[in-house]
Amino acid sequence: MNDAVLAIPAGRIPHLGVARPAVSSAHLELGAWWAGSRLFVLACAAAAQVAGWPQARWHPSLVHHPLTLLGSWDALWYGIVAAHGYLLIPGQFSDPAFFPLLPIVEHAFATLGVPVLVTGAIAANLGLLVGLLALYELGRTMLPERDARRAALYLAVFPYSFVFSMAYPEGLAVAAVAGAALLALRGRWVGAGLCVAAATLARPQGVFLALPLAAIAWQRWGAMPERERTRAVAALLAGPAALVSFSLYLWHLLGRPLAWSQAEVAWGRSFSLLGPVRAVHQLLLAPSHHESWLFRDAAFCALYLLLLAVARRAGISWAWILCGGAMVLLPLTSGTFTSDGRFGLLALPVFWGLAVVGRNAWANRILLALGPALLAVAVFTIHTHYP
After folding, report:
1. β strands within the chain, DSSP E
2. pLDDT by residue (tens digit) across 247-295?
3. Which residue in 138, 162, 192 sits closest to 6, CA to CA?
4. d(CA 72, CA 106)
5. Which terminus has fewer CB within 10 Å in the chain: N or C?
6. Are the CB atoms for 205 and 175 separated by under 8 Å?
7. Is 332 helix (H, G, I), strand (E, B) or coil?
8. Peptide bond into 90 cis (omega under 30)
């Protein structure tokens, strides 16, 4: 397969010839795995709460809440933004560090009387369902159907996939990332641009979608009418435009257009070109500073990069590999590996690489057994350190 992002092997061109049913057996299977994995996460979270471990570290407002684990850590801050808006307090933890898409959704439903935590958890779970289906359809354009199906299935049971059941933005973001590329492939550039903007307002890594979308537009450019070219360019610029719009809003509200970056400093993040060096240095000092969770996130970072290499060898285009690599490595410019395991979930080629590994029957069995086991461990240890 060549490097073109649209390289579709003969015999696997979707939507040509006999039309596929609107809801295929693959969609039903993925829906079942989505439901099963989400119920599994909920059951593990409920078990952890019944066991009362580690209750001493639970936020007081959530000790008796049925969604304790799913509404902890950053979920509390997103809820604060939804309820009260942004406020920058230099030198202290403050909420401009949290991007606005999830709070916008939570606030909208709060006006209808729905608690922000409930909205956040439902949005995350439904976002994952949309993301799984879009990831499958997207994968079919680049890999055999079985690989595309396994990639989505592995995402559902991946150890870090518990965040797709928390009131976190990753569920919305993964749906927007996969949806943007799928819509661009189908020539629906307005929808693709909206998805890019949504992905960026959920997580800043969304700006890197410009790489695969640019590859799609480049390959089709000669056959595009002028109006479609304009829409394609607009979709490519949607990510930076979303970042600029958020900065302009913060400038209007707080007088500081980069308040979101300045707020990160209090959270132990300071973006610079030397950030990755500082991240490695922090990792080396982790044992003496009692920061063992850094090894978890560093291990996932290394795993993601390895799987990107596997995906490249399987024929996934450089545009996608660079996009995935940027999504994994961008957080390191903040000077820490913390949460990179979560942020890397948006690097879709990682799961195409994992699907290629799963072509081996034994590897597939191990992944399907190990994934839920590690997922359960991850849920029970949510409160040892924020994901």
Report:
1. none
2. 999 999 999 998 888 888 877 787 888 889 999 998 898 888 778 888 9
3. 138
4. 15
5. N
6. no
7. helix
8. no
Q: Which amino acid is at 183?
A: L
Angle among Cα 130, 375, 123 to the nearest 5 degrees reads 30
DSSP 59: -
- ∠309-181-269 over CA atoms, to 5°? 65
> φ and ψ at 326, to 5 degrees?
-65, -40
Q: Which helix (H) or strand (E) holds 119?
A: helix 116-139
| DSSP-assigned letter for residue 348 | T
Is residue 183 left, alpha or beta, with left meaning phi > 0 and alpha meaning psi from -120 to 50?
Answer: alpha
36 to each of 111, 177, 245, 372, how far by Cα in Å? 31, 23, 38, 10
First-last CA distance in the chain = 37
Per-residue tokens: 212? 């695969």
pTM for the model stands at: 0.90
Torsion of CA 191, 196, 201, 206, to 10 degrees: 160
CA distance 177 to 187: 16
